[in-house]
Specification:
There is one protein chain. Helices cover about 45% and strands about 15% of the residues. It is of the alpha+beta class and about 425 residues long. It has two domains: about 5-115, Phosphorylase Kinase, domain 1 (2-Layer Sandwich), CATH 3.30.200.20; about 120-414, Aminoglycoside 3'-phosphotransferase, Chain: A, domain 2 (Alpha-Beta Complex), CATH 3.90.1200. The strands form five sheets. The protein has a six-stranded mixed β-sheet, sandwiched between helices. Strands 7-12-13 form a three-stranded antiparallel β-sheet, with no helix packed on it.
Length: about 425
C-alpha cells in the first residue's frame, strides 16, 4: 500500500515554490536529499534521496507553473497514482511492471511522491551505444509490447466515441496553441504560411483543418484499458543488473483511468526516437530569415535512433500479437503516423512547462523556448507532409514521411 498523506502548509508567504515543497517533503518523510536527476521530460523536480532505513528512494516534487498544459498540471500528477491502482485490479500482470509508489504527499498547491531507486537505463539506451545494438532495442520493445499492449491495453475494450481523434489527438494541440502564441514570435504562430527547411507549409492549425470530416477511416476500432498514455522511452526503465536483464519497470503514466488507444503510446515511443529524445540530448539548431526557417539538431543524432525510426513501423506490422489485436482496424498504422506528428506539435507547449536545466551532450543548455520552437517547426513540417500525402493518395508512405526528421535535416541532423 502507498503511504498517502496530506501535508498541512507551514509556508504560505508568497505561495509555495519548489525549494519549499522539497524541504517539506524531505522533512515529512525523513529523507536525506542527494543529487537532482535531470534525465526526464516533465516539469517535476526529481531527486535521489536516502530514507532513515537506509533505502534509496527517488523523490519527485511538482509545484506547477502558471500556464502549465494538461498533462503537466498538478491534477494529472495526482491522478497517476489512481491510474496505477486501477491497473492493479484491471490488468494485474501489467501493474506488476510499474515501479511502486512508496509515499504520496499532497500539499496546498504542490504534491510529491517517492519510488524505490531502480538501477536501470532507459529503453533507448542500446541505440546510443557504439555500434548501436538496434536488434537488442527491438527485442526489448517486443517485450514491452507484450506487457503494455497485450497484458495491459487488450484486457478490455470500449466503443470509440464519435470524434475521438478530433478531440484527443488533434484537439490536444489546438487546446495548447494559445500557450505557444504567448511564448513564440507572433508572426510565427499567426502567419497562414511558413517555410520550414525549404518546404512551403500551411500553419499547422490550418493544415489540420483540412482533415475535418476525413478522420473516420483512421479512428480506432475500439478503445482499451488505460495502460499508460505516456510511453516515451524515458518512462521505461530497463534493469542494468546482469542477473535481472529481462526486468523492466514503468513510471509516470498519463494520469487517466479513461479508455485509451494503444496506438497513442506506440506513437509516443516513435516520437521519442525521432524528435523528443534527440532534442533533449543534443538541442535544436534553428535559423530564421526572410525565406523561412531551417531547423535541425545541434549535433548528429545517434545512428541507432535513425535506424530504429525507419524499422519501427515494419517491426510493429509484423508483430503477431499486434496484427491480431488490430485485425479489424486497418487504419492503425496511418493513425500512428498522424498521432506521431501531433505528438511533435503538442510537445512544443509542453517544453514551456519544463524549466529544469537541459544540458546537451557537450554541456550546452537549451532554453524551454528553443525546445518549443524546434518542436513546433518540425511538427509543422510533418503535419503538412502527412496531410498532403492523405490528400494525394489516401495513405502515408512511412519511410518518405519519417525521412523528414531523420535524413533531410540541415546541420547536425543530416
Amino acid at each position: 500500500m502507498t503511504d498517502r498523506r496530506h501535508v498541512t502548509p507551514t509556508r504560505t508567504a508568497g505561495g509555495w515554490n519548489e525549494e519549499a515543497a522539497l524541504a517539506t517533503s524531505a522533512d515529512t518523510l525523513g529523507l536525506t536529499v542527494a543529487d537532482e536527476i535531470l534525465d526526464g521530460g516533465s516539469p517535476a523536480r526529481v531527486y535521489r534521496t536516502t530514507a532513515a532505513t537506509g533505502d534509496d528512494l527517488v523523490l519527485k516534487v511538482l509545484v506547477p507553473a502558471p500556464g502549465a498544459v494538461d498533462g503537466h498540471d498538478l491534477a494529472s500528477f495526482r491522478h497517476k497514482l489512481h491510474q496505477i491502482e486501477r491497473l492493479r485490479t484491471l490488468a494485474p500482470r501489467l501493474a506488476a511492471h510499474y515501479l511502486p509508489v512508496v509515499h504520496f504527499l499532497d500539499g496546498d498547491g504542490w504534491s510529491a511522491c517517492t519510488t524505490p531507486f531502480y538501477d536501470s537505463a532507459d529503453l533507448a539506451a542500446p541505440l546510443r551505444e557504439s555500434p548501436p545494438r538496434t536488434g537488442e532495442f527491438f527485442r526489448r520493445h517486443a517485450t514491452l509490447v507484450r506487457a503494455l499492449v497485450l497484458d495491459g491495453y487488450a484486457v478490455c475494450s470500449h466503443p470509440t466515441p464519435v470524434g475521438h481523434l478530433e478531440e484527443v489527438v488533434v484537439g490536444r494541440f489546438l487546446r495548447r496553441l494559445p500557450v505557444l502564441r504567448r511564448a513564440l514570435p507572433e508572426d510565427l504562430t499567426t502567419a497562414p504560411r511558413i517555410t520550414v527547411n525549404g518546404v512551403p507549409c500551411e500553419a499547422p492549425h490550418l493544415a489540420l483543418g483540412r482533415l475535418t470530416g476525413r478522420l473516420a477511416p483512421l479512428a480506432p476500432a475500439r478503445l482499451m484499458a488505460p495502460a499508460h498514455g505516456d510511453a516515451n522511452t524515458r518512462n521505461v526503465l530497463w534493469c542494468t543488473r546482469p542477473e535481472a536483464a529481462e526486468e523492466f519497470r514503468l513510471i509516470d503514466p498519463r494520469g487517466s483511468v479513461e479508455p485509451w488507444d494503444p496506438v497513442y503510446d506506440l506513437a509516443k515511443t516513435l516520437f521519442s526516437l525521432s524528435v523528443w529524445d534527440p532534442a533533449l540530448r543534443t538541442g535544436f539548431s534553428v535559423h530564421g530569415s526572410k525565406h523561412g526557417y531551417e531547423v535541425g539538431f545541434r549535433q548528429p543524432v545517434f545512428p541507432g535512433y535513425r535506424a530504429a525510426v525507419h524499422r519501427f513501423l515494419p517491426h510493429l506490422a509484423t508483430h503477431e500479437g499486434l496484427s491480431f489485436l488490430f485485425r479489424d482496424d486497418p487504419g492503425w498504422l496511418d493513425r500512428l503516423l498522424l498521432t506521431h506528428a501531433l505528438h511533435v506539435l503538442a510537445e512544443a507547449p509542453c517544453r514551456l512547462s519544463d524549466r529544469k536545466p537541459k544540458p546537451d551532450l557537450q554541456g550546452r543548455e537549451s532554453t524551454p523556448e528553443a525546445l518549443a520552437l524546434g518542436h513546433y517547426l518540425l511538427g509543422t513540417l510533418l503535419i503538412n507532409d502527412l496531410v498532403d500525402r492523405l490528400d494525394r493518395v489516401g495513405h502515408v508512405d512511412a519511410a518518405g514521411h519519417l525521412a523528414l526528421v531523420t535524413d533531410h535535416l540541415p546541420g547536425g541532423g543530416s
